[in-house]
Design goal:
There is one protein chain. The chain is α/β, with parallel strands linked by helices. 36% of the residues lie in helices and 19% in strands. The protein is built from 9 helices and 13 strands. The strands form 4 sheets. Strands 5, 6, 7, 9, 10 and 11 form a 6-stranded parallel beta sheet that branches. A 3-stranded mixed beta sheet has the order 1-13-8. A two-stranded antiparallel sheet has the order 2-12. Strand 3 and strand 4 form a beta hairpin. Helix 1 packs parallel to helix 8, helix 4 runs parallel beside helix 5 and helix 7 packs parallel to helix 8. The radius of gyration is 17 Å and the shape is globular. 45% of the residues are buried. The N terminus is likely disordered. It binds nickel (II) ion. Nickel (II) ion binds next to loops. The site of nickel (II) ion has 5 residues, from loops.
Length: 248
Amino acid sequence: MKKYFSFIITLLLIINTDIFSSDAVSCGSSDIHVFDPIGNKAVTSFDNESPMIALTFDDGPSDRATDEILDVLEKYNARATFFVLGSNVEKYEDKLERAVRLKCEIGNHTYDHKKLSKLTEKEIEYQIKSTEDSIFKACGIVPELIRPPYGIHNSKTMKICNSPVILWSVDTLDWKNRDPYAIVDTVLSKASAGDIILMHDIYPTTAEACRTIIPKLISMGFQLVTVSELMSARGYTVVSGQAVVSVR
Ligand code: NI
């Protein structure tokens, strides 16, 4: 493991019976394409040495915030990761397709947001597989990452999901405060390089906050990349059974 010590990947500790992760980490090469936020033009690679942040949006797509957030990402040539619900993908395939066109990443957030730890093996399989199918039908992509609802996972659910579990290091609590000023303040005061930031693209207040957050983070020198790009840039390929909260 010593060769990985130049970077730190933060893993969840086993604190209670519902939360589990192993610490398996493997090094991976990257073929990364991202937009240059300074020159505002497309480039084929970004500066691995410069700070990066991964914005993530859960529970969509929706007709309340997804397009508004994509508008801001598009305007500033930034990217984000959307952890979508299969039930919403079926309603808003066009929004998912647009996110993919803008080089955003799509992750699996289950079909209808149940606590996986409360489900049977078959029910968990359905939650994951039906969402994969919905995503593939909408945009031709098979998601590689999973974020379980509420971040709740254990050894059983991890095994069945058979994907890396992506959690977060900065929680905006946007679902609770519904306050764009509070969301902006949380992100700008807490976010640092390697953070994975949790928001939800189902609240207009979150979309409003993004109109400030995205240009401000870019002006602070952060490259806004997808979760997979963040991990690749730092030389990590996460494996199934691993939970990631940030990549530094
Ligand atoms: Ni959720």
